Amino acid sequence: MGELHAKNIGEYLEEQRRKETLRFITCGSVDDGKSTLIGRLLYESKCIFDDQLKALESDSKRYGTTGEKIDFALLVDGLEAEREQGITIDVAYRFFATDRRRYIVADTPGHEQYTRNMATGASTAQLAILLIDARKGILPQTRRHHRIVTMMGIRHIVLAVNKMDLVNHDEAVYRKIEADYREFAKDAHLATLQPIPLAAVHGDNVMKASGNMPWYQGPTLFEHLDTIDVSHKATREAFRLPIQWVNRPNLNYRGFCGRIAEGKVRPGDKVRILPSGRTTTVKSIDFFEQELAEAEEGASITLTLNEEVDVSRGDLIVAADSPPEVADQFQVRILWMAEEAMVPGRSYWLKMHTKEVTATVMEIKYREDVNTGAHLAAKVLQLNEIAVATLSTTHPVVFEPYTTNRALGGFILIDKLTCATVGAGMVEFALRRASNVHWQALEVNRQQRALIKHQTPRCVWFTGLSGSGKSTVANLLEKRLHAEGRHTYLLDGDNVRHGLNRDLGFTEADRVENLRRVAEVAKLMVDAGLIVLVSFISPFKAERRAARELFGEGEFLEIHVSTPIEECEKRDVKGLYAKARRGELKNFTGIDSPYEAPEHAELTIDTSKQSPEECALAVLRLVEGK
Fold it and tell me: Could you identify which of 103, 237, 408, 409 might form a hypothetical disulfide with 402, taking C-beta atoms 3.0 to 4.6 angstroms apart as the criterion?
């Protein structure tokens, strides 16, 4: 019996392995019944154990919202806060199976503040069930979720008009919602759209056709999920392997590990390494202790190559005769997921497949209206807003458009200071004009320029509040350096705004761009062999950090002029603080705009405790390495 049992288990597991897996999400507005629907799917597919059912009955009495009946939403809402409030907060993944398919379903939040969680669930889904409360019709959050799922590449949608029991199963209500949605989604280029009227709490049209809605002759939800074809049927099967790890256990073995994003590979295939462009052939395909004759999309493997070529994490091994593109400037579509606004010019970490680089959103071309899809002008991007923008990376990235390959065209943006994910995006195409811009080889380099000046080039960056004494100390320092025969230049905040940055105001976005330009100019001056002094309030850590990253080790010296704001206001030579206090001067640092003090400045000085001359001497000693 034991052998028979083991055999039956083995056959069952093999049968399950051969089944196709469909990943889908439920989304929609608050209280549309997403968790209840998934709970009903689990119940109807016999994927709930007896002990789970008993626990569900007990929890339904304690937390349930359906009276004496079982509250199926509790099968999915696992957080205590979710059960207490009757809402979904985090993404919940559940597995179930039918005779024909396996399913992984993501229950995503409906509240606007948790939209970022919904986007996470949509990023790997093939189909979306968009729920609508029959009593409420299409809501703004419904429209937002529709735009996000289509933005994420989902082209199969089930329009689930739920809670039909609460509108007396009225066909007219259902037909109006269907018509409204078809009009709204007509430009979404959907592959399939299946409207289904439901009463998930009672199981109407979930597993079995509902006798309460005889006017509906379409498939039940289970019938549709079991039969829909979501295969992408790629027009090409070009091999793509993003490298996650280089496996070097000993001197005799060097393997390149990753998950195949597209296509197939066999030993002997000719491949190309990107971005370097080197070509070689595949020696073996290793999977644990096995050597495979072939591997295809979705397989996690280790490749060994017949030649010693340089391959690192973030590189791609691809079909030699069909390589993807490499670029450092793109047009992208971004969903902003942070409370703090996205400001063009600010740098973030960009993670695309296994590659991580610094990226900057250069320009917001337009923001999309969530209700109409209209293109609106925008200088910044707020939480849950979607925009088309141009993006630049510090190093070339291997990519394919998101519509061609989700694995190689999707990316996230990460805040450099907090390491929080602040945005998700999709590459539309590379900016072709960028491919015409190349670095010109120069015969004279920075070391030669510095040598003839007999000095070590540096960027000395003064930051502090208005009136703290930055410009005074910087002027005194330049006089001392000039007297010693040093070649210098002073970039002062007020002076630069008369020329280079005269087109910029004092909004956060303009300040970011102001400092980006100045940092680039300072970099060129250091490259010319100069000691450049930069005197700017530069209130934001992110911009000062971005400036530092432009320079080599030891070339950037951050000087925090930490004079207290009370002392700065006493000086107030220009009367700016007084105007700001009266509300006549908006976005003034220290009053209605924040100043983020440096945490790791090379030197901190305070002109309220030391004379400007003493402060300048302290900076001089730092510059001279004393």
Answer: 409
Contact 423, 343 (CB under 8 A): no
SS3 (DSSP) at 10: helix
Residues 568, 590 contacting (CB under 8 angstroms): yes
Burial pattern 543-560, b for ≥16 Cβ within 10 A else e, equals bbbbbbebbeeebbbbbb
| Residues 48-91: tens digit of each pLDDT | 655 555 555 555 555 555 555 655 555 554 433 333 444 333 45
Closest C-alpha among 322, 335, 326 to residue 353: 326
The answer to whether residue 435 is catalytic is: no
Element (H, E) at 35: helix 34-44
Angle at 419 between CA 415 and CA 421, to 5 degrees: 65
* Fold observed for domain 327-431: Elongation Factor Tu (Ef-tu); domain 3 (2.40.30)
Q: Rounded distance, CA 147 to CA 371, Å?
A: 9
Judged by DSSP in three states, 233 sits in coil
Q: 230: how many CB neighbours lie within 10 A of its CB?
A: 17
- Of 95, 88, 104, nearest to 36 (Cα)? 88
Q: Could you give the 3-state DSSP secondary structure of residue 239?
A: coil
First to last CA, the chain: 84
Please tell me the distance from the alpha carbon of residue 303 to that of residue 283, in angstroms, as a whole number. 7
How much is the pTM? Answer: 0.72
d(CA 433, CA 426): 20
Cβ atoms of residues 350 and 356 within 8 Å: yes
Listed in order, the ranges of the chain carrying CATH 3.40.50.300 are 11-227, 446-623
Please report the DSSP string for 301-354 in residue order.
EEEEESS-----TT-EEEETTS--EEEEEEEEEEEE--SSPB-TT-EEEEEETT
162: phi then psi, degrees, rounded to nearest 5:
-95, 170
Q: How do beta strands 127-133 and 20-28 pair?
A: parallel
Which positions of the chain have pLDDT values less than 50? 1-6, 77-90, 435
Tokens 């409207």, located at residue: 195
Peptide bond into 275 cis (omega under 30): yes
Backbone φ and ψ for 179, nearest 5 degrees, come out as -65, -45
**Rounded to an integer, what distance in angstroms lies between the CA atom of residue 331 and that of residue 333?**
7
Structure confidence at residue 531 (pLDDT): 93
Q: pLDDT tens for residues 322-346?
A: 889 899 899 999 999 888 888 888 8
DSSP state of 439: P
357 backbone dihedrals φ, ψ, rounded to 5°:
-140, 165
The class (CATH top level) of 240-319 is: mainly beta
Question: Token match 């640092």: residue?
Answer: 589
Q: Which CATH architecture has domain 11-227?
A: 3-Layer(aba) Sandwich (3.40)
Buried b (16+ CB within 10 A) or exposed e, 410-428: bbbbbbbeeeebbbbbbbe
Q: What is the pLDDT of residue 92?
A: 67
CATH number for 446-623 (one of 3.40.50.300, 3.40.50.720, 2.40.50.1020, 1.10.8.60): it is 3.40.50.300
Q: Which residues pair with 205 in a beta bridge?
A: none
Chain region(s) in the chain for CATH 2.40.30.10:
240-319, 327-431
Catalytic residue among 538, 562, 593, 608: 538
Helix (H, G, I), strand (E, B) or coil at 16: helix
